[in-house]
Amino acid sequence: MRQLGELEATVMDRVWSWDRPTSVREVLDDLRRERDLAYTTVMTVMDNLHRKGVLTRERDGRAYRYRPVTSREEHTAQLMEAALPGVGDRTATLLRLVDRLRPNEVAALRKALDAAKRGKGAAR
User: Fold this and answer.
1) pTM higher than 0.90, yes or no?
2) What is the pLDDT at residue 1?
3) Which of 27, 33, 34, 53 is deepest in the core (most CB within 10 A)?
4) Residues in the chain with pLDDT < 50?
């Protein structure tokens, strides 16, 4: 799994935050508040995200409605998981990540690890 490009990430931020099927036009109208983009640019980005398996789509008249395949958190976890095989010492890398966490994040991680240890899966 590859990390998203800048415009792909911006589009996905919108789609994840809305949590509903959305059209290219809706994304374009929202993005135009910040920058000038063509409809075809946003359509191409969303089509590429669909081909990459990040978005699903279904017909709505002549257009499509798009929805994320996974949550933002699941997508990020998949990216992290994909990155780990490329490092020499996975444990050291994970410990570096933990060192960067805020205290409340460490507490949530500890709770999830305790739940996993008890066989109950990650606490959310």
Assistant:
1) no
2) 57
3) 27
4) none
Quote the tokens at residue 6.
Answer: 């800048």
The string of pLDDT tens digits covering residues 2-16 is: 679 999 999 999 999
- List the structure tokens of 106: 């460490």
Residue 49 CB coordination number (10 Å)? 22
Residue-level pLDDT at 122: 58
Residues recorded for the chain? 124
DSSP 65-124: EEEESS-HHHHHHHHHHHHGGGSS-HHHHHHHHHHTS-HHHHHHHHHHHHHHHTTS----
> Which is nearest to 46 in space by CA: 56, 38, 37, 36?
56
Q: Are 53 and 32 in contact (CB under 8 A)?
A: no
> Whose CA is closest to 46, among 38, 83, 71, 77?
38
